[in-house]
């Protein structure tokens, strides 16, 4: 597969989180966190288009309105069937390759996303799924994962009686043992200073928002393209904030 294929990043986001309602539109540095996520992905050298995959629930109108304001495509579909919603977003953008991004990974690093995409391009079709996180395993901190696969493979799953795990977790099928031979998933492992799987930079709780706000507002003014290593170093300098975001999950 060559880089002439259209690479699209659908972002799965909605306002009706049970743990932290409206979380993706909470503001940091004068912007909604979802806009910050989009701006960080827009620095990618490999993604051709970003598209929002939100729901038809009126509570998600602010997400659609933000997309219209900043000029990002928006697809609105099922609140419960995330798989079908992502497929809809991919279809309206004529995606060949999908880079699955979740809206709670607000400080994602475009460099690691680009690396996953390049590894996919180099290894397809021998490997039809590439990610830096597997089934409950990771090497980067949580919150920096990207999952890359061909749009036609996701359409095939969606069109052939997907189960509830498929509908909720979108790319879940690609790394299940019973289809390993078909998709041959490639999970990329990191070592060195960014191998910090115990850390969490995912927007689920108030403590996560507090972390992202403090981190972003400290790092962005000096370096708008700050990445995962910068965030890790910042977390180690602020252990109380870091540990509060970890402890709330225990």
Word description of this protein:
This protein is globular. The protein has 250 residues and is of the alpha/beta class. The strands form 2 sheets. The chain has a 7-stranded mixed sheet with strand order 5-4-1-6-8-7-9, with helices on both faces. The mean pLDDT is 96. Helix 3 packs across helix 5 (151-158) and helix 8 (206-219) runs antiparallel to helix 10. It is built from 10 helices and 9 strands. Helix 2 (61-70) links the parallel strand 4 (49-55) and strand 5 (73-77). Helix content is 38%, strand content 15%. It has one domain: Spore Coat Polysaccharide Biosynthesis Protein SpsA, Chain A. The termini are far apart.
Keywords summarizing the entry:
250 residues, alpha/beta, Spore Coat Polysaccharide Biosynthesis Protein SpsA, Chain A, two-stranded antiparallel sheet, 10 helices, 9 strands, globular
Q: What structural class should be given to the helix and strand makeup?
A: alpha/beta
Measure the end-to-end span: 42 Å
Total beta strand runs: 9
Q: What is the CATH C level class, in words?
A: Alpha Beta
CATH arch. level architecture: Alpha-Beta Complex
Radius of gyration (CA) equals 17 Å
CATH topology: Spore Coat Polysaccharide Biosynthesis Protein SpsA, Chain A
């Amino acid at each position: 597969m060559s880089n002439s294929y259209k690479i699209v990043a659908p972002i799965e986001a909605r306002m009706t989180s049970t743990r932290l309602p409206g979380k993706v539109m909470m503001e940091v540095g004068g912007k909604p966190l979802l806009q910050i996520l989009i701006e960080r992905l827009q620095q990618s050298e490999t993604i051709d288009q970003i598209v929002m995959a939100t729901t038809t629930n009126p509570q998600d109108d602010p997400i659609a309105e933000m997309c219209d304001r900043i000029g990002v495509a928006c697809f609105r579909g099922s609140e419960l069937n995330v798989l079908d919603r992502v497929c809809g977003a991919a279809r309206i953008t004529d995606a060949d390759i999908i880079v699955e991004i979740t809206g709670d990974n607000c400080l994602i690093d475009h460099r690691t996303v680009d690396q996953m995409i390049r590894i996919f391009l180099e290894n397809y079709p021998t490997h039809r799924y590439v990610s830096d996180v597997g089934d409950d395993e990771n090497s980067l901190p949580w919150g920096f994962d990207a999952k890359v696969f061909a749009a036609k493979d996701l359409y095939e799953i969606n069109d052939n009686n997907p189960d509830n795990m498929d509908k909720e977790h979108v790319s879940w099928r690609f790394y299940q043992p019973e289809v390993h031979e078909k998709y041959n998933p490639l999970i990329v492992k990191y070592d060195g200073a960014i191998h910090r799987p115990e850390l969490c930079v995912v927007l689920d709780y108030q403590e996560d928002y507090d972390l992202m706000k403090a981190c972003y507002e400290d790092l962005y003014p000096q370096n708008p393209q700050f990445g995962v290593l910068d965030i890790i170093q910042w977390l180690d300098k602020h252990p109380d904030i870091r540990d509060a975001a970890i402890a709330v999950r225990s």
